[in-house]
Description:
- The chain is of the alpha/beta class.
- It contains eleven helices and 14 strands.
- The protein is 37% helix and 13% strand.
- The strands form five sheets. The protein has a four-stranded mixed beta sheet, with helices on both faces.
- The chain binds pyridoxal-5'-phosphate (PLP).
- Pyridoxal-5'-phosphate binds at residues 64-66, 90-91, 93-94, 135, 161, 163-164, 185, 187, 197, 199.
Amino acid sequence: xxxxxxxxxxxxxxxxxxxxxxxxxxxxxxxxxxxxxxxxxxxxxxxxxxxxxxxxxxxxxxxxxxxxxxxxxxxxxxxxxxxxxxxxxxxxxxxxxxxxxxxxxxxxxxxxxxxxxxxxxxxxxxxxxxxxxxxxxxxxxxxxxxxxxxxxxxxxxxxxxxxxxxxxxxxxxxxxxxxxxxxxxxxxxxxxxxxxxxxxxxxxxxxxxxxxxxxxxxxxxxxxxxxxxxxxxxxxxxxxxxxxxxxxxxxxxxxxxxxxxxxxxxxxxxxxxxxxxxxxxxxxxxxxxxxxxxxxxxxxxxxxxxxxxxxxxxxxxxxxxxxxxxxxxxxxxxxxxxxxxxxxxxxxxxxxxxxxxxxxxxxxxxxxxx
Length: 370
Ligand SMILES: Cc1ncc(COP(=O)(O)O)c(C=O)c1O
């Protein structure tokens, strides 16, 4: 068994590289030697691969998940004075991108499984609502049929914050293919991860594809013709090459995380530990495995003393961040989110953790409560 000295890391990116190094380095060397670093073949190949994987007509590679959200919202026409509905328990980028366009993030509380509470969306819709942004946190898509029914009723497009959910399925459809726009991150901690920042946008809309493609490259139609003011948000060839390489094993990668999660679910004492149930119409990709418990901070400390690293996604809800002060929220505005922020704990579910280590973690968690 592990001792406190023998740490179980929350992530293990070094191990991922160690296993890939022999095959990956020659591919990267080839790119460096080619002298072609921006918008080359690897980027084109990645966009083709992602289109096939996610099942959309278009994919535009970008330099972060944050930019995917920002450009996606821009393509939907979100601008000053508009409102976009999202959830307050997400990573800050879900809201900051709305605010950067001069629009107002309108928060809706969440359900037990951390997905947006679809029953509360309708009451938040106004004539300024330009988009609905559900976040597939942890790699779990919420109750999308219900969300889409409301969006369709009011003819409001959905932009999926799919940053954490490459490979997640809802009624056999992939995250990022469920409505107007999907936004993905390939940050090193994501299931499909680059070795630096990266992201991409998926869509079936030719118009979104064209605008986003120009926008990421200064708005340039050709080298010398600028259609509108854009920005620079291009994924580079090296990151695209790493992602093409890793995409080959993505299904296997996700499967291992699902197996890890299933073992946790089997062994954790359900009298003390809550985790969202598996649904037969959806497949969660377990970007993270989040439990909800009483005495979360004490448990976190106890696990660390026993050599187990954990994390919290996220300890301060967005509406209570200093950056949100101008929106005038106060404590208890979103009770479920706030309660969860004190109860959620992310256990290691990374691809290099062993069954024995998961058994050890479960033993420690159960011992803490018993
Ligand atoms: C839910 C969510 N949205 C957006 C982002 C932003 O992605 P990136 O870090 O690639 O900008 C992240 C990344 O952590 C995320 O988890």
